[in-house]
Amino acid sequence: MSVDADGLKTFLAVHRTQSFSKAAHALHRTQPAISRRVSQLEEALGATLFERGSVPLVLSQAGRVLLPYAERALAALQDAEHAVRNLSGANAGPVSIAVVGTLAGRDLSSVLRRFAERHPDVRIELRTARSAEVSVFVRRGEATLGIRYDHDRSADLDSTLLGAEPLLVACAPDHPLAGRTIRSLAQLADEHWLAFPEIPGQREVAASHVFGIFRAAGLGEAKWTPVDSLTAQKRLVEAGFGLALIPQSSVAEERSAGAIGAIRVRGLHAGSPVFVVVRRGGFLSAAAQRLRQMLIEDYAPTLRRSAPASAPSRGGVRGRARSRRRSAR
User: Which site in 13, 50, 136, 145 is 20 to 30 Å from 298, CA atoms measured?
Assistant: First the structure.
């Protein structure tokens, strides 16, 4: 039996679910049918693709070799289908987008809303993920466009720099330095910081980024607490439990509401480069091409805007509560 699309699709389903039974559920087949299909593919290739004794199921050496080719082959077949279907309507959708959650803010939403108004016949599908996952979705053909931090140098992807989203030092609105400009980061050396922990494949504003900025400023590593959720970071900052380097757009609403303040630091040009990625050689419908162009022309300039004015500080009960927390540290 030869290698075919169904065999590759079954192979990928087993790999992604790490289970024959889960792959059967995902593909609406029986487990024996999935096992038989994988065995046929292995017979055709003359190699075992999975380590059968492992739980969860993992790829063998041959499986790891096959994986990128299987993903490219199925993505190419999907391109062929979309290209032919596109002949019947240049704006036919959907257009799927994978974006890092911290970038899915007001500015990006505004661009997507304008696109939807101009192309009401195109359905936009949006999912959020970490940067590495965004690339995976685009590479597999599960997302047409990806918006992520940092440059992905994969040969399977084309990356276009949109700009660098400014990072700001977020603080509680009643912090003594909220709304003020300081000379250098040295004045924040004794502060407690909140940051994403180091996670393989994650290139968001992790602790290494925060500490790298500190080291570049001639300071040692700061006191910090790992917090793996941006929402949790913002709530802890708001409550006065520490400072955080946070993408500007991610705290725009909290700053407008006066829930979070900011400290401006002279000479601090911290930013996270943002890229739009597409699969190299992949099919892009006319609608997808227009959306990509809108991201370059309309969304990219928002990344270069200067930080908005800090929200006014608030005292009272919040100030007294923060003082008690400081004394308890």
Answer: 136
Domain boundaries, position 262: 165-271+308-328
- pLDDT for the residue numbered 318: 38
In a domain, 101, yes or no: yes
CATH number at residue 116: 3.40.190.10
The pLDDT value given to residue 207: 58
Whether 316 maps to a domain, the answer reads yes
Mean pLDDT, residues 155-180: 91
Indicate whether 176 and 221 sit together in one domain: yes
pLDDT over 80 at 219, yes or no: no
Q: Residue 52: inside a domain, yes or no?
A: yes
**Among 56, 63, 143, 57, which Cα is nearest to 99's?**
143
Q: Determine which helix (DSSP H) or strand (DSSP E) holds 255, and give its type and residue range.
A: helix 252-256
Residues 43 and 184 grouped into a single domain: no
Phi, psi of 105 (to 5 degrees): -105, -160
127 & 220 share domain: no
CA distances from 193 to 99, 100, 121, 221, 244 (A): 26, 22, 46, 10, 6
pLDDT at 167: 80
**Residues 144, 12 share a domain:** no
Question: Residue 187 — pLDDT band, cuts 50, 70, 90?
Answer: confident
Q: Quick one: CA dihedral 310, 312, 313, 318, positive or negative?
A: negative
Answer yes or no: do 99 and 213 share one domain.
no
> How far apart (Å, rounded) are the C-alpha atoms in residues 33 and 130?
34
Question: What pLDDT was estimated at residue 105?
Answer: 78
Instruction: Determine the pLDDT at residue 277.
Output: 96
CA distance 5 to 72: 11
**If you average pLDDT over every residue of the chain, what do you get?**
82
CB 98 within 8 A of CB 129: yes
For 104, list phi and psi in degrees, rounded to 5.
-85, 60
